[in-house]
DNA sequence: TGCGTAACGGTTGAC
DNA sequence: CCGTCAACCGTTACG
């Protein structure tokens, strides 16, 4: 084994020396093991196992095809800047932590920075989810057609109405709630741009507003405030629709919970599959992300049953690469080349699961949802009990993980 | 030495 | 179609 590494390493050094010597030097700065690991990574890349002929450039980045690249951290681990670690690694981090392994050791073993380990574990402890947050996207619009219509009606009924009065009426009439009510400035903009000559001159409005209620505070109504007391601390985890979760300890709304319409709640933000929910009380996954994995693995109990509107899209957009991956490894936001290129190697399965809340679900995943749940749901038992079991994964699951990571598991199954 | 965290550079997706 | 913005990411460095 070691001879193979060393042989590979020599070949790699030769390759790098002949090509991009600078790229490799920075990687081989730690101990032999890490060096060999990095060497194997490089070798795999060179041989096409990882990168299909891609190569490191002078800044240490790995160009993967025409699209993207991976990088190697100080521990010799491969990562993609800006992208979440593969779900399998995240899961592994949590599992090792539950086995009592120190974060620093987890960091070294998995070659993931200790900051990342810390972050993932902290998030897990706080939310119960190993999954990353939703990347990209925007806050949901608050000026829905229905809101605009209401504003128009208010304005037509009382041309002299002020924006702040409209705002209050939107709340009073239940058109909006405190989380999705437009700001006064937004209402003013609507009056100005969409309703136009119905609105009165702004100076009049502002003058009256200042005179009548100069110190009116909107803070308590400001949209995009955290609807849950747990959130202002910076946590951005949530259920998918910003809906309070009755199950308790992990109900943390996302940072921008303004799911302002039923369609937003049901059609976009929520992906809970009622058929996959049973028996998972109190779990609040980030349903926006890793859609199919999450739905299967971290179902929620709250009754916002989503319309998985984009399951088909997902299959198209993020086709599941053919592989022998465990079933909980879902399609990924990475391009297929990225998936193979960066998170592969010994783990041919360092493939991140489906990611975007916008693109949800996967037929492949639904087929295997039972397995997914089995593989990923250890958290429930861990959290349901007073004490977390030493290893919440079954032997079979350990074997799956072992096969994924190519790592030994310090458990009874290994 | 281990760990939490801010800064940083990056990706992503809605607008 | 493209730029902007604001969310997220993991790594790194610092205390």
UniProtKB/TrEMBL annotation:
One GO cellular component term: nucleus
Any GO BP: anterior/posterior pattern specification
Keywords linked to the UniProt accession: Developmental protein, DNA-binding, Nucleus, Paired box, Transcription, Transcription regulation
Pfam families in the record: PAX
Record GO terms (molecular function): DNA-binding transcription factor activity, RNA polymerase II-specific; RNA polymerase II cis-regulatory region sequence-specific DNA binding
Record carries keyword Transcription regulation: yes
Subcellular location: Nucleus
PANTHER family named among the record's database cross-references: PAIRED BOX PROTEIN PAX-1, PAIRED BOX PROTEIN PAX-6-RELATED-RELATED
Protein name as annotated: Paired domain-containing protein
Species of origin: Hemibagrus guttatus
């Amino acid at each position: 084994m070691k001879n193979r590494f060393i042989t590979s390493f020599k070949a790699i050094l030769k390759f790098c020396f002949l090509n991009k010597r600078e790229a490799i030097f920075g990687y081989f700065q730690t101990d032999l093991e890490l060096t060999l690991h990095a060497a194997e990574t490089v070798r795999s890349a060179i041989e096409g196992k990882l990168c299909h002929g891609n190569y490191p450039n002078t800044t240490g980045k790995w160009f993967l095809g025409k699209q993207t690249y991976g990088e190697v951290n100080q521990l010799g681990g491969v990562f993609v800047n800006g992208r979440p670690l593969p779900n399998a690694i995240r899961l592994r981090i949590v599992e090792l932590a539950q086995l009592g392994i120190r974060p620093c050791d987890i960091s070294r073993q998995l070659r993931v920075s200790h900051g990342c380990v810390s972050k993932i574990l902290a998030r897990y402890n706080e939310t119960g989810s190993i999954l990353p947050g939703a990347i990209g996207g925007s806050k949901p619009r608050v000026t829905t057609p229905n809101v605009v219509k209401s504003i128009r009606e208010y304005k037509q009924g009382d041309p002299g109405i002020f924006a702040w009065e409209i705002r209050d009426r939107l709340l009073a009439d239940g058109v909006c709630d405190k989380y999705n009510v437009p700001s006064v400035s937004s209402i003013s903009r609507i009056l100005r741009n969409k309703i136009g000559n119905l609105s009165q001159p702004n100076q009049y409005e502002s003058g009256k507003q200042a005179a009548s209620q100069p110190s009116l505070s909107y803070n308590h109504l400001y949209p995009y405030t955290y609807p849950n007391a747990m959130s202002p601390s910076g946590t951005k985890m949530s259920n998918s629709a910003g809906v309070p979760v009755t199950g308790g300890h992990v109900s943390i709304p996302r940072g921008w919970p303004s799911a302002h319409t039923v369609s937003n709640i049901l059609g976009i933000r929520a992906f809970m599959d009622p058929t996959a929910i049973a028996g998972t009380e109190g779990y609040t996954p980030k349903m926006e992300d890793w859609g199919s994995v999450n739905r299967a693995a971290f179902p929620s109990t709250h009754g916002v049953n989503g319309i998985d509107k984009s399951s088909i899209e997902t299959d198209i957009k993020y086709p599941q690469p053919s592989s022998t991956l465990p079933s909980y490894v879902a399609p990924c936001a990475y391009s297929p080349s990225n998936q193979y290129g960066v998170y592969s190697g010994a783990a041919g399965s360092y493939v991140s699961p489906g990611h975007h809340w916008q693109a949800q679900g996967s037929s492949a995943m639904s087929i295997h949802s039972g397995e997914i749940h089995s593989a990923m749901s250890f958290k429930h038992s861990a959290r349901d009990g007073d004490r977390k079991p030493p290893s919440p994964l079954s032997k079979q699951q350990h074997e799956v993980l072992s096969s994924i990571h190519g790592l030994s598991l310090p458990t009874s199954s290994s």
